[in-house]
């Protein structure tokens, strides 16, 4: 399991990143700490609403933008989806299998690109600063029903 910000108290995170410690930021950070997979801003909003009825969507959006700009969360844009997902930053990085039908994200253990990055740097004289890998397909629940995913429509 990757380690990262989950192990720290919220007040320590806010202090380290020099952002104000508010009730609503604590709610969002707690949701991200407990999440087992990346969440959309809407999913975070609905979970937050259960914890603080006064919170609104624009507040969630602003908090996520602050968290992203400070490096507390990672924002991922998913193919064939209008919504980005957010996850708490970890030491290292994660890669995902993403279902084209239900949008489920399954983390992949390890990184298959480490040696390939070194090869690319050596053969191109390019300094690689990072990468992002997503593999798209169908999860076990959806692979029998691929209609309506936007990928196979119009194909014979």
From TrEMBL:
Molecular functions per Gene Ontology: DNA-binding transcription factor activity; transcription cis-regulatory region binding; zinc ion binding
Cofactor note: Binds 1 zinc ion per subunit. Binds 1 Mn(2+) or Fe(2+) ion per subunit.
InterPro entries registered for this protein in UniProt: FUR, Fur_C, WH-like_DNA-bd_sf, WH_DNA-bd_sf
Binding site for Zn(2+): 99, 102, 139, 142
Pfam family, one: FUR
Cofactor(s) demanded: Zn(2+); Mn(2+); Fe(2+)
PANTHER family: PEROXIDE-RESPONSIVE REPRESSOR PERR (PTHR33202:SF8), ZINC UPTAKE REGULATION PROTEIN (PTHR33202)
Recorded family membership: Belongs to the Fur family.
Name of the protein in its database record: Transcriptional repressor
Organism of origin: Acidilutibacter cellobiosedens
């Amino acid at each position: 399991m990757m380690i990262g910000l989950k192990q720290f108290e919220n007040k320590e995170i806010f202090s380290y990143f020099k952002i104000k410690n508010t009730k609503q930021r604590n709610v969002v950070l707690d949701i991200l700490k407990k999440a087992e997979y990346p969440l959309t801003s809407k999913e975070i909003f609905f979970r937050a609403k259960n914890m603080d009825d006064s919170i609104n969507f624009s507040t969630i959006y602003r908090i996520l933008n602050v968290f992203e700009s400070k490096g507390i969360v990672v924002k991922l844009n998913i193919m064939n989806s209008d919504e980005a997902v957010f996850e708490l930053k970890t030491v290292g990085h994660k890669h995902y299998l993403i279902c084209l039908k239900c949008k489920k994200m399954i983390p992949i253990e390890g990184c298959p690109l480490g040696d390939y990055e070194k090869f690319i740097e050596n053969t191109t004289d390019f300094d690689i600063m990072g990468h992002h890998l997503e593999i798209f397909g169908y999860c076990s629940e959806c692979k029998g029903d691929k209609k309506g995913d936007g990928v196979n429509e119009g194909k014979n």
